[in-house]
Request: fold
Amino acid sequence: MFNPDLNPYVTEMDQHRDIIKTLPPEANKDFFDFIKTDAPLIVDLGCGAGNFLRDYAIQNPDARFVGFELRFKRLVKGAVKFKKRDIDNIRLVQARAEDITDWFPEKAISEIHVNFPDPWPKKRHRKHRLISQAFLNNVHKLLRDDGAFTFKTDHEDYFNYAVEQLTAYPYLNIKEYSEDLHNSRYNETNILTEFESLFKGKGFPVYYMKTDKL
Ligand SMILES: C[S@@+](CC[C@H](N)C(=O)[O-])C[C@H]1O[C@@H](n2cnc3c(N)ncnc32)[C@H](O)[C@@H]1O
Reply:
């Protein structure tokens, strides 16, 4: 029987199995074939409805892109968006960003992006923030030797916290930094995310950093 309370995007996701991959990782042989590449492999953690991936992939048709996202609606909206533009070099994974090591071998990824992660502003909730020493260790393990990790947020406290975490982590080095990305020299190559467009429209500053491996 049709259950009207069911999130309609749960069933709609079935139409996009070519793009959206779900747990368990080992049930997705085609995904592991997709990421086995010498071309740049770019990962967006908490990718939302995929604007950043879409625009980055259009600029770089030879690279491969993977987005991690939990919400059904955002995954479906992303897949529809990619198909509308005939983009075939993006896959979406419905899994926690914290479990990224289940989906890639070591030194496989060229770039890992975290854009506007949930800020968990209350002190007692900080343990839920994605950026941690354990996470950075995974990032370091998965990046190619010339790989980079980038972080953008509108949230000053999370940004300062992420800078502290990176400074305390000995194997990644901050090489680009701005407390006002859109008025900085890094803006020229910046690709807007959905959340970023909203903040930009309101005139709020965006915090940005990029790190490479030591
Ligand atoms: C504030 S939104 C930002 C979306 C997008 N990156 C942007 O900048 O427009 C954060 C996104 O991360 C997703 N998310 C939250 N926790 C996550 C996790 N542990 N793993 C993967 N995605 C997560 C949320 O569902 C949401 O879509």
User: Anything to note?
Assistant: The beta strands are 20-22, 41-45, 64-68, 90-94, 109-115, 143-153, 172-178, 207-213.
